[in-house]
Amino acid sequence: MESFDTKEKPLWLRIFECAEQMRDSVIHLSPCEEYETLLDLTISQQRVIRRVRQLTEKEPEGTSLKQLADSMHLTSGTTSALVETLVRKDLLVRTPSPRDRRAVCIRLSDYGLKKFREGHEFISRVTEEFFHTLTPAEHESLHRILMEFYDFMEKAEQKELGRKQS
Predict the structure, then answer these.
(1) pLDDT tens digits for 123-153?
(2) Is residue 45 classed as helix, strand or coil in its secondary structure?
(3) Contact 51, 68 (CB under 8 A)
(4) What whole-number distance in Å separates Cα of residue 5 and Cα of residue 14?
(5) Which of 15, 57, 59, 67 is the most exposed place for a label (fewest CB within 10 A)?
(6) What are φ and ψ of residue 84, in 5° steps?
(7) Predicted confidence band at 39 (pLDDT cuts at 50, 70, 90)?
(8) In whole angstroms, how far apart are CA 28 and each of 23, 31, 36, 108, 116?
(9) How far apart are the C-alpha atoms of 29 and 24, rounded to whole Å?
(10) Number of Cβ within a 10 Å radius of residue 122
């Protein structure tokens, strides 16, 4: 059986560990009363918050449950349960849709937006501190490679989803 304690971890594992360290750092910087809320979020709940943030950049009034579920490749039932939990934690809000009185729009609450922005600012600051240790060529190269990797992973996901739907 292969051990995970080897000095040469796979690159993908190092990337995941960096992301996890960034997440943990943001959580630990929160005031004590908010720490438990953030620590208690599942990976799926974190994904919902990020996706709602992305979707509401184009539609500030909010996104529909169907649009959110479709964009995350989840069922409406699963997405609804995740949203309900995040509404109870005061990270998301549901408001009546201005276009369809039977529908609701989902968006970050003021508290959720505040926490998202605080995390974003912290990660941006720390990342910039690291980037200042690189030469301009190293910075550009790292940025380009990470963007290429992101695009590759996005295409791999779409390919796999297509394969599963076939």
Answers:
(1) 888 888 888 999 999 999 999 998 999 899 8
(2) helix
(3) yes
(4) 12
(5) 57
(6) -60, -45
(7) low
(8) 9, 8, 10, 21, 14
(9) 9
(10) 15
